[in-house]
């Protein structure tokens, strides 16, 4: 294939042609624009993901409508109302349904449940609590259940005086797989008379599934066999969802790399803690009095006590590589030891453990993490920025979406975005779909919703039934908002609503897996606790976070920072930026980060530097807080409160500073306990929170609305992007020099030609 650069090379080889230089200049000038335009308009939507699916055969590439077979109500049994009896197991896991109503002649819903690799699963069954409409009393109806698209059981539905009913479904273990499994429920109402006609009230036929319904997995836990690939098991598990008994320890010196790695793993493990986070951060010397059931120990090798060095399978060498060793501690409890002779390599070892694709390769109890091994992943993420946030339906769901049955049908696409995601301008959706031709095309249409906000719709037409497309940009009113899903709804209306064929001729629609979604993220700079993880986390990764510790941080302070990182790292991914500095090391010239600091005035000298910036300033002795114009504090109350405050960083434009402060270790401990409860985190609002000794909170707003900017000003951009500015100036200068050279060459040729003519 001849490329643009091939053409350029051919033209350069032709002597006496000035057009080559002009063409090269033109290429240099348009290349950045062409690359940008391609990523946003063309390649952005179709070539979205770095990970591609394996090549499929032609037959596999054919999209299929996933239609569960319906069961004739007269030929299936009544529901099994007896709970299955199995041999007792050590652990059970319940996955509850959301309340769902199935309407019409044919309707279905799915529940996804996850089976962990470390489960030795003994049984799986479903308990369904449901209600049916009175129409069922005079109508033959059935419900069919499937696991991973394989039908397993059908039951006849009956109406029982409006009372709630319960049925049980045994799920064959041979159909259950590790990872995600889908459990499908399909309801069928045979609303036909002898001529195959349906009455006009088919939508009044419904099956409601209660949110008390669940799928239960009974299992035993597997032996991790000291394999690092099992991480985070056994340090975190489904049968210990709070992480109680797990300690993440750093050396007594609490070196910067040790703390950064510990905070990364704290955020990663906390994703599984649910309602309460009982994971502890401490120093090695504290472990003897703590009696941990599991320990993750992170230490520079020089700071590691001899008793741990003696247990290691292999010591780190002088290359700067990190060692991850899964062994037993002195009490024969699981110990994951991370150490290196290079402090900066400890964070890379933490990233390896957080990166599933790398971690799964470590099937032994010892892993050597090469220094700089994570740089490729970091650089790859930066290079893919132009084509990021583009997804196909296949990327998200692995297949297309099927809609079967008349009337209104809805399905959700759960978006692979982090909780800190906010939609920027330029979002785009391209849906490719087809549908049956037995529709009333005057009343049939497709509608797309951002969350629950309608964005676009299109009427279906017979001419395009075999291949239609809906192409639209996200409307302005949803820009700057977030949503966890896109909802696609089809209204598949039947002509005259008189007669409807049986299932084989039911109306259907199919959204192809090539359908694409472009979701550019906005830079949300609202300084508020209720704005999610921004700006400390962006796109699921820690966003240039600098932790400023006291020169001799206590376990309470480490735990308080750990719970804060857990709060902002609810979807923590590897390779985020976390740096750690002591207050005595901090230099304001190094402050171009989003800073988090915690402590007391006497224990953290950094707080003295920023005291004048705080809404609640420390008193002169540092044991209490002073009143301000929004809240008058009594002397006794001021000594018992902790304060969390967000403010614009005084050290760098468009950066944020979070301060967690108290007059004593007891007030800091109260802040830490408050943040351990995920439900209480949701109560944090505005930009300043005062928490008293009884964990009652007062939320206040000190940042004025006009101070909060949607984005940096031109001056701020110039300051923040010095390297880009320098590159732009150099590149522009080079272009002008080349243009000047071309002009001189042209003038010389003109003069030369005139001399020859004379």
Keywords:
single chain; 758 residues; 7-stranded mixed β-sheet; 17 helices; 28% strand
Strand content: 25-35%
Number of helices: 17
Number of strands: 35
Instruction: Name the strands of the widest sheet in spatial order.
Output: 30-29-31-33-32-34-35
Q: Name the poorly predicted regions.
A: 1-62, 706-720
Computed over alpha carbons, the radius of gyration is 31 Å
- What spatial form do the alpha-carbon principal axes imply? globular
Write a compact overview of the structure shown.
It is a single-pass membrane protein. The protein has 758 residues and is of the alpha+beta class.
Secondary structure blueprint with pairings:
Layout: H1 4-12, H2 19-46, H3 58-61, E1 91-96, E2 100-103, E3 106-115, E4 119-132, E5 140-147, E6 150-156, E7 165-171, E8 179-190, E9 206-209, E10 214-221, E11 246-250, H4 256-270, E12 280-283, H5 287-290, E13 294-300, H6 306-309, E14 322-328, E15 334-340, H7 345-354, H8 356-359, E16 366-369, H9 375-383, E17 390-392, H10 393-397, E18 401-404, E19 407-414, E20 428-435, E21 445-450, E22 453-459, E23 468-473, E24 485-492, E25 508-511, E26 516-518, E27 537-538, E28 541-542, E29 545-549, H11 555-568, E30 578-582, E31 594-599, H12 605-610, H13 635-638, E32 642-648, E33 656-662, H14 665-676, H15 678-681, E34 688-691, E35 697-700, H16 714-720, H17 722-757
Parallel strand pairs: 11-12, 11-13, 13-15, 29-30, 29-31, 31-33
Antiparallel strand pairs: 1-10, 2-9, 3-8, 4-7, 4-9, 4-10, 5-6, 5-8, 14-15, 14-16, 17-26, 18-25, 19-24, 20-23, 20-25, 20-26, 21-22, 21-24, 27-28, 32-33, 32-34, 34-35
Helix pairs in contact: 1-2, 2-17, 4-7, 4-11, 11-14
């Amino acid at each position: 294939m001849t490329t643009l650069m091939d053409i350029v090379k051919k033209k350069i080889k032709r002597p006496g042609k000035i057009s080559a230089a002009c063409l090269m200049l033109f290429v240099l000038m348009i290349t950045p624009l062409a690359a940008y335009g391609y990523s946003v308009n063309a390649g952005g939507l179709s070539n979205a993901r770095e990970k591609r699916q394996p090549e499929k055969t032609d037959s596999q590439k054919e999209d299929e409508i996933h239609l569960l077979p319906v069961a004739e109500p007269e030929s299936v049994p009544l529901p099994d109302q007896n709970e299955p009896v199995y041999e007792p197991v050590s652990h059970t896991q319940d996955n509850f349904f959301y309340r769902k109503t199935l309407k019409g002649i044919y309707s279905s819903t799915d529940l996804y449940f996850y089976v962990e690799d470390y489960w030795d699963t003994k049984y799986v069954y479903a308990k369904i609590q449901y209600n049916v409409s009175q129409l069922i009393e005079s109508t033959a109806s059935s419900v069919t259940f499937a696991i991973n698209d394989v039908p397993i059981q059908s039951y006849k539905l009956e109406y029982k005086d409006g009372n709630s009913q319960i049925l049980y479904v045994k799920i064959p273990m041979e159909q259950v797989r590790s990872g995600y499994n889908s459990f499908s429920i399909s309801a069928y109402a045979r609303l036909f008379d002898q001529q195959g006609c349906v009455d006009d009230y088919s939508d009044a036929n419904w099956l409601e599934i209660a949110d008390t319904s669940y799928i239960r997995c009974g299992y035993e836990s597997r032996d991790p066999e000291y394999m690092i690939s099992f991480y985070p098991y056994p340090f975190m598990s489904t049968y210990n969802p709070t992480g109680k008994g797990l300690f993440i320890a750093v050396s007594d010196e609490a070196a910067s790399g040790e703390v950064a790695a510990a905070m990364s793993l704290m955020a990663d493990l906390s994703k599984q803690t649910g309602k309460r986070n009982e994971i502890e951060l401490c120093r090695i010397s504290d472990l003897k009095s703590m009696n941990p059931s599991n320990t993750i120990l992170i230490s520079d090798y020089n700071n590691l006590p001899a008793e741990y060095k003696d247990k290691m399978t292999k010591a780190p060498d002088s290359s700067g590589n990190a060692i991850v060793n899964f062994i037993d501690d002195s009490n024969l409890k699981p110990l994951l030891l991370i150490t290196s002779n290079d402090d900066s390599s400890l964070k890379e070892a933490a990233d390896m453990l957080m990166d599933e694709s790398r971690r799964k390769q470590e099937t032994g109890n010892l892993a050597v993490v090469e220094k700089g091994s994570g740089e490729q992943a970091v650089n790859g993420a930066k290079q893919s920025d132009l084509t990021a946030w583009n997804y196909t339906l296949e990327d998200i769901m692995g297949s297309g979406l099927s809609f079967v049955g008349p009337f209104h049908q809805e399905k959700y696409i759960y978006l692979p975005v982090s909780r800190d995601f906010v939609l920027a301008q330029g979002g785009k959706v391209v849906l490719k779909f087809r549908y049956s031709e037995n529709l009333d095309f005057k009343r049939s249409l497709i509608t797309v919703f951002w969350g629950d906000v309608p964005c676009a719709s299109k009427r279906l037409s017979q001419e395009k039934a075999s291949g239609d497309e809906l192409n639209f940009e996200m409307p302005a009113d949803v820009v700057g908002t977030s949503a966890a899903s896109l909802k696609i709804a089809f209204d598949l209306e039947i002509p005259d609503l008189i007669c409807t064929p049986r299932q084989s001729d039911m109306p259907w629609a199919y959204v192809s897996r090539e359908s694409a979604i472009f979701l550019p993220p906005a830079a949300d700079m609202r300084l508020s606790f209720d704005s999610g993880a921004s700006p400390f986390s962006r796109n699921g990764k820690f966003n240039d976070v600098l932790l400023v510790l006291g020169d001799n941080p206590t376990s309470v302070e480490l735990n308080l920072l750990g719970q804060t990182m857990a709060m902002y790292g609810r979807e923590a991914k590897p390779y985020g930026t976390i740096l750690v500095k002591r207050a005595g090391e901090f230099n304001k010239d190094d402050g171009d980060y989003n800073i988090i600091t915690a402590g007391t005035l006497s224990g953290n000298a950094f707080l003295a530097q920023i005291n004048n910036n705080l809404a609640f300033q420390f008193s002169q002795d540092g044991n209490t807080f002073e009143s301000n114009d929004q809240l008058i504090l009594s002397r006794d109350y001021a000594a018992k409160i902790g304060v969390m405050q967000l403010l614009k960083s005084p050290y760098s434009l468009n950066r944020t500073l979070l301060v967690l402060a108290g007059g004593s270790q007891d007030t800091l401990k109260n802040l830490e306990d408050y943040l351990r409860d995920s439900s209480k985190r949701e109560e944090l609002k505005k930009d300043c929170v005062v928490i008293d000794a009884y964990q009652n909170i007062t939320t206040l707003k000190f940042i004025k609305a006009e101070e909060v900017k949607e984005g940096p000003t031109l001056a701020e951009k110039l300051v923040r992007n010095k390297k880009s500015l320098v590159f732009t100036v150099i590149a522009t200068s080079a272009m002008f020099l080349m243009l000047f050279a071309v002009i001189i060459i042209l003038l010389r040729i003109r003069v030369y030609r005139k001399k020859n003519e004379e």
